[in-house]
Input
Amino acid sequence: MLFLVVVLVLRPVGVFLSTRGSELNFREKVFISWVGPRGIVAAGIASLFGLRLSLDGVAEAHWITPLVFMIVLGTVLVNATTARWLAKVLNVIQAASDGILMIGSNLASRFLAQYLNERQRHVILVDNNAVSIQEARKSGLEAVQANIFTEDLNDHFEMLDMGYLMAMTSNSQLNKFAIQSMASSFGENGTFQLPPSQEVREGKCDPTSLFAPYADFVSLTEVVRDYPEYHEIPVSGIDGTLALTKAMQPGLQIPVFYRDKMNNLRIFPASVDTLRQMPEPVKLIYVGKKLEVQAQETKPTVEITRD
Output
């Protein structure tokens, strides 16, 4: 009986009283009442006071410690095994982790984030540079100042839906560190990085490389600076996409995203093998100088306009 009173009455009352005036809705408060942290403090205090009261001769004091431990163990077992089911019933569970975490708040990152943000994708920029973070926030972007070498980004509640990770700094070692150390937390749907310039010059293409085999931090920044425009072109699957990207030139155009048959916006990988493992593109999105495309039945003819 005491167990039921604690779980079904005392804990909910405590949660609802302490969350008055908060932004939590009724369903969220109910869920917190069921799975909220409990046990450590209560068990410690119970052990201390139970022993002290027993030594002082208080009747039935020896029941305090086992009673508290019974409640702690019971709530942990019951709540933990039913938490996911209750979250679905109350509709407080996250449906999909399609947010994008960008490491680096430079010009190119902010430009790409703005595009995604305008299309209702949750994007968060992370950088240790206060000026870059301030520039991002001035543009209406969500940005967090943090040092990924020393800080745990899992502590940031707003990053719970980050399912994609894009490391886009000028420091290739930092990019590699980011995807190696943070992929399990923020890269369940995809992990990408801007490759080192040396690897780009040598023609190397890692499965995690972003955008195009010729795209590195310098080339992306130059294209965004010189031609800050987005363009969308319909493509006939992966083969049509590859034909179009081959017509693009470094310094003029870089593919960055694409839409699949379900109209989902996806990150464009530099690796052809990675692209073939992803849903088939129907629209290619690139940044840079506009391409003049004349569609034909066999394959697209692409002409590059020049000033």
